[in-house]
Amino acid sequence: MQLISAVDATRCPLCGQANQCALEEKRVSAVPQPPCWCTQVNFDSKLLSTIAKEARGKACICPVCAKTKNA
Prior knowledge:
By secondary structure, this protein is mainly alpha-helical.
């Protein structure tokens, strides 16, 4: 039997901290949000490749990881 681990879309897949994703907040709360901070950042493909396959496209990187690991 294979265990399936759920990806928490509110947590950074790199560090586990809150990712502050406005898109996810809107989905959960149904309250309109301003554009997410991540839409203003260019993520390096090397950084994105460090995300576990099961979390890719499902959980945003947090601002701290984006700043410190995307440099």
